[in-house]
């Protein structure tokens, strides 16, 4: 390979760095022939279509701890091996709790007229003993005293847990692509619609929330005593989409409890209106779910693309493999998981061997609180000094537009230079600020460089955690671009003389765990 020292660094430093930082940043070495080869392989000979077909269509839902997750993890391990990763394995963590999977659902309105009710059971909730018919009742409870009128009245009923909401169909107007202003404007401390609260207002808000939690705990206790048939929730989406609400216990041996069913907004609102106007509907549900307690642990899928002279140091690529059970988790987050696998496939296909080892990590338990990635980081405190960087994909099916600097100003000019060859593919921004909600936080909170790529929205908020998150939501051309950008970024970070700079930490403090 021909090594080319780019002059991009000087241009980008003038535009994006200043003062003392500009004096400290070295010009990055960009291997232009490698970039060109990666682009050609990833854009013209991508394996993503077959990867998504196997993961989504052949293995189905991947709720953490479920048989479906385990099948998908085993298959992902074999794919890593096929693409040249060594020591590909399922790495156990836990205990997480029992597994669960949905078997069947049937729901019907019986009175005042007959029609199907579209819904899905919440995770880790129980089954019915065959079809269970009863009235659908909304409990008008504002205080503890309101509970008294329902005692002894609820056996065999289906309880409506939410008020109705006005989800009028909105015109399709959410942008599929991020604008230049969105990408280049600094992140606000308080986004529009989220005003800063005074200490007094915050304390009052927290007290209200605590009081509501206490009242709901009393409601749930009453419902358990009354032996209701099940609980019904309103989907937070409209136009027939389901985003489930209500979860049961993962604890081994705990009672299964009644089924908790999320209905589409339109069906739920009909039942709510009938109940509050004095003519409760009669409904019938037959829900069958299955629990598994033979293995209370869960697993991350780990593979290593071995480096050369710096093989003991790591560039880690990751995304979570687990998903909500109501669909096959295409945009959340098969997209990110398979992009990382495809990125290393590209490197292996081209015979590129970087200096550092590139690890691929597909996490379990992200949806329950980043548990898999957190365990990985916390169990390797003695190896933190070997981790150069963690790169994450978990914002849907859109192409990569840049990366968040996660409050680490030292990395801005480095990423700007490494991403510059992809400006023609829409990669334009290293955003100053923090982004949260996914597995890079496990690394960042431990003082390690952890970053999440910026992606075009592509309707992500309309698919994640819902029954719409299937293969059809995938934008293959966008994700081919993402795999190319990730492959090149990972390769160049693995080729640097130095590891990536870290944010300042307290040298006398203990390792950070969370």
Describe this structure in words.
Helix 4 crosses helix 9 (330-349) and helix 9 (330-349) packs across helix 13 (476-495). The chain has 2 domains: 4-96 and 297-495, 3-Layer(aba) Sandwich (Aminopeptidase), CATH 3.40.630; 99-166 and 194-292, Glucose Oxidase, domain 1, CATH 3.50.30. The strands form 3 sheets. It has an 8-stranded mixed sheet with strand order 3-12-14-13-15-18-16-17, sandwiched between helices. Strands 5-4-11-7-8-9-10-6 form an 8-stranded mixed sheet, with helices on one face. The radius of gyration is 25 Å and the shape is elongated. It has helices at 8-16, 19-24, 32-44, 48-58, 67-82, 180-184, 199-226, 265-276, 330-349, 371-378, 412-419, 440-444, 476-495, and strands at residues 4-5, 29-30, 86-93, 99-111, 115-116, 119-121, 132-138, 158-160, 230-234, 260-263, 282-292, 298-305, 310-320, 356-363, 387-392, 400-404, 429-431, 450-455. The chain is built from 13 helices and 18 strands. With 514 residues, the chain is of the alpha/beta class.
Briefly summarize what is shown.
This protein has helices spanning 8-16, 19-24, 32-44, 48-58, 67-82, 180-184, 199-226, 265-276, 330-349, 371-378, 412-419, 440-444, 476-495, and strands spanning 4-5, 29-30, 86-93, 99-111, 115-116, 119-121, 132-138, 158-160, 230-234, 260-263, 282-292, 298-305, 310-320, 356-363, 387-392, 400-404, 429-431, 450-455. By secondary structure, the protein is α/β, with parallel strands linked by helices.
């Amino acid at each position: 390979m021909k090594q080319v020292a780019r002059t991009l660094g000087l241009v980008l430093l003038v535009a994006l760095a200043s003062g003392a930082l500009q004096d400290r940043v070295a010009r990055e070495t960009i291997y232009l022939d490698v970039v060109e080869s990666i682009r050609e392989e990833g854009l013209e000979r991508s394996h993503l279509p077959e990867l998504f077909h196997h993961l989504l269509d052949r293995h189905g839902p991947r709720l953490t701890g479920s048989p479906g997750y385990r099948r998908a993890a085993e298959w992902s391990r074999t794919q890593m091996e096929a693409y040249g990763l060594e020591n590909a394995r399922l790495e156990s963590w836990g205990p997480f709790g029992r597994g669960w999977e949905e078997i069947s659902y049937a729901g019907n309105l019986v009175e005042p007229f007959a029609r199907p009710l579209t819904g899905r059971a919440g995770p880790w909730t129980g089954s019915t003993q065959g079809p269970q018919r009863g009235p659908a009742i909304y409990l008008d409870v504002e205080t503890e005293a309101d509970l008294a009128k329902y005692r002894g009245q609820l056996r065999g009923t289906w309880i409506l847990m939410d008020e109705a909401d006005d989800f009028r169909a909105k015109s399709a107007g959410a942008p599929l692509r991020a604008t230049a202003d969105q990408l280049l404007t600094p992140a606000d401390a308080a986004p529009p619609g989220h005003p800063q609260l005074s200490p007094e207002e915050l304390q009052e808000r927290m007290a209200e929330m605590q009081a509501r939690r206490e009242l709901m705990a009393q409601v749930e206790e009453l419902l358990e005593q009354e032996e209701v048939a099940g609980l019904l929730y309103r989907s937070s989406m409209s136009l027939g989409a389901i985003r489930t609400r209500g979860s049961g216990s993962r604890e081994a041996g705990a009672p299964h409890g009644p089924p908790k069913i999320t209905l589409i907004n339109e069906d739920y609102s009909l039942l709510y209106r009938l109940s509050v106007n004095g003519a409760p509907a009669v409904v019938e549900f037959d829900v069958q779910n299955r629990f598994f307690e033979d293995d209370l642990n869960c697993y991350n899928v780990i593979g290593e693309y071995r480096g050369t002279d710096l093989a003991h140091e790591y560039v880690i690529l990751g995304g979570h493999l687990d998903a909500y059970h109501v669909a096959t988790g295409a945009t959340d987050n098969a997209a990110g998981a398979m992009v990382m696998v495809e990125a290393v496939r590209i490197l292996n296909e081209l015979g590129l061997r970087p200096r550092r080892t590139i690890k691929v990590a597909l996490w379990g338990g992200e949806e329950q609180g980043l548990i898999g990635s957190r365990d990985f980081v916390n169990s390797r405190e003695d190896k933190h000094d070997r981790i150069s960087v963690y790169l994450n994909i978990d914002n849907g099916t859109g192409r990569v537009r840049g990366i968040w600097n996660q409050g680490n100003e030292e990395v801005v000019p480095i990423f700007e230079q490494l991403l510059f060859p992809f400006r023609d593919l829409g990669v334009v921004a290293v955003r100053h600020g923090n982004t949260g909600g996914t597995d890079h936080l496990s690394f960042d909170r431990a003082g390690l460089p952890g970053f999440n790529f910026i992606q075009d929205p592509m309707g992500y908020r309309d698919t994640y955690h819902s029954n719409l998150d299937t293969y059809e939501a995938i934008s293959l051309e966008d994700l081919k671009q993402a795999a190319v950008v990730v492959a090149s970024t990972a390769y160049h970070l693995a080729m640097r003389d130095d590891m990536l700079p870290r944010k300042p930490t307290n040298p006398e403090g203990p390792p950070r765990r969370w």
